[in-house]
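User: Here's a chain of 312 residues. Predict its fold as tokens.
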Amino acid sequence: MEFSHVNPNTDSDRLQSPTVSVVIPTLNEERNLPHVFAKLPSMITEVVVVDGGSKDRTVEVARQLRPDAVIVQQTRTGKGNALACGFAACTGDIIVMIDADGSTDPAEIPLFVDKLIRGDHFVKGSRFSHGGHSHDITRLRKLGNDGLNLVVNILFRTHFTDLCYGYNAFWRSVVPALDLPDVQLPRPAGGQKLWGDGFEIETMINIRAVAEKLKVGEVGSTEHERIFGQSNLNTFRDGFRVLRTILSEYGRMHRRRRSGLRPFVDSLRLTTPQPRVRPTGSTPSAVRHATDPRRDAASLNRAARSRVPLDD
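Assistant: Prediction complete.
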């Protein structure tokens, strides 16, 4: 299958008005959502809220704040599964993933979108370069992040400045390159998570984007402290999980190369969007990718979809 993407070579060839979907995984975040939704820029065309079985009013608050929000119930457990469910529900040209706890700033989304329009396939936030900063990370976690980041840069020949940060944006056409577990697969009988269903997702997708030869860029991002609630992060447990992810993905990359599989980037067919002629004074409409499956009536169906969550 071929996937189309923006030709990044000249200004006239770029897709200047992409539609943008933002995916927000949630679990008992009713008090945080008003702060997060208030900072969503006007350029956002679709908000996908993925709920992991919240016991509070997370879903009700999301619908009150954004009646057009698409509400999805994740099919298994874990942040990775939540994101995969959200990506599957997106219809925008660009997908942005942010956190519901207020740690990632939605007001920065235009920076990510601009990098994508300028030619990147995948853009990751960086707290430690390009003007980024963190108000949340401890010295011990920063030391661990630097060490893990160095391992990735050596093994995958990358130039990352920040590894363990979940603020990313990418063209929807490159989602297959991330090769996430099928959201329809059943939960393992023993209660374990499928590889990619847990917090390893953040490291995994960054590495897979590089392994598939996508053009990966970085933008500076400011990480804030969680507004309400407690973080589930554990410095040593999650550090070993990230290290395991790095080594696993390194082995996966070499197995794929030995088997003769070509990197995903080779399947991308660069095309030049055709300019649209609009009557004077008319409102610009978004140019869609050739891979965008939406029909013209999709916007009319979005509200109905938000009232029919996926079966858990």
